Amino acid sequence: MRLATRQALRPMRLDDIQQVLEIERESFPTMWPPTAYKRELEQNRLAHYFVVVQRDAAFSAPDVAGLEDHHGPFGRLFGELRHILGTEEEREIPPPDQRVELVTGVLGVWLLADEAHIVTVAVRESHRRHGIAELLLISAIHLVAQARGQELVTLECRVSNEPALALYDKYGFERVGLRPRYYSDNHEDAYVLSLSNLLSRSFQARLRELRAEHERRWGRFDVEA
């Protein structure tokens, strides 16, 4: 089942933080403190964060009547502008179905000297199993291999997270280590996963096949710089 609205992948912005924290709370409910995204975006030059957003299709056909009573798409737009311009404490996020852009997934990657390390991948609970995590992973690999010319990506994954492990296996990640009691909430172990040779012809050909397969199944996502 495809989602019925336009979707795009783009770099994360400061005004995405509150929505990303919603996703983080859903995905990692026992994690504390939450990720300091503002510091990551503004101060960490190694960090690159991306989000997938779902856009209200109604904006392609503006409803002038909705402008008057603030219940149509323009009313939601003004509500979003108030949300963006308000202080962090004053902001109130509209319900998900009333947002101009609904952030549905987030990925963070640190580009280190000799490798790229994926620090987080999370998808809004209501939008899982719609190809969003795979899209984020494809984008991270593209960033590392195509834009940065690096050949190695690493990450940690809970040993019990079978859907994520299946996705990483699909893209050729290997289990190269184990971090005992890595997660502080329940002391679960983590696999250390590694994907190398990103610049090889064989991997690039495989990546093109997987990207085409993803597009056939889930449709085209806009990609914005």
Summarize the structure.
The protein has 225 residues and is an alpha+beta fold. Helix content is 36%, strand content 24%. The protein has one domain (6-56, 100-223): Aminopeptidase (3-Layer(aba) Sandwich).
Q: Can you describe this structure?
A:
The protein is α+β, with helices and mostly antiparallel strands and 225 residues long. It has one domain: Aminopeptidase, CATH 3.40.630.30. Helices cover 36% and strands 24% of the residues. The protein has helices at 17-27, 37-43, 64-69, 73-85, 132-147, 162-170, 201-218; strands at 6-11, 47-55, 101-111, 116-123, 153-158, 174-179, 190-195, 222-223. An eight-stranded mixed beta sheet has the order 6-7-5-4-3-2-1-8. The chain starts with 5 loop residues before the first strand and ends with a strand. 24% of the residues are buried. Mean pLDDT is 84; it is low at 59-90.
Q: Keyphrases for this structure?
A:
225 residues; alpha+beta; Aminopeptidase; eight-stranded mixed β-sheet; 36% helix; globular
> Which blocks of ≥5 consecutive residues have pLDDT under 50?
59-90
Number of strands: 8
State the end-to-end CA separation.
27 Å
Largest sheet: 8 strands, mixed
Helix proportion range: 25-40%
Structure annotation, total helices: 7
Total number of distinct structural domains: 1
Structural category is alpha+beta
Strand content: 15-25%
How is the largest sheet built, in terms of strand order?
Answer: 6-7-5-4-3-2-1-8
Overall spatial form = globular
Q: What CATH first level would be assigned? A: Alpha Beta
Would you tell me which CATH topology applies? Aminopeptidase
Q: What Rg is obtained from the alpha carbons, in whole angstroms?
A: 19 Å
Based on the coordinates given, report the CATH architecture.
3-Layer(aba) Sandwich
Mean pLDDT: 84
Oligomeric category: single chain
CATH superfamily: Gcn5-related N-acetyltransferase (GNAT)
**Helix and strand run:** EHHEHHEEHEHEEHE
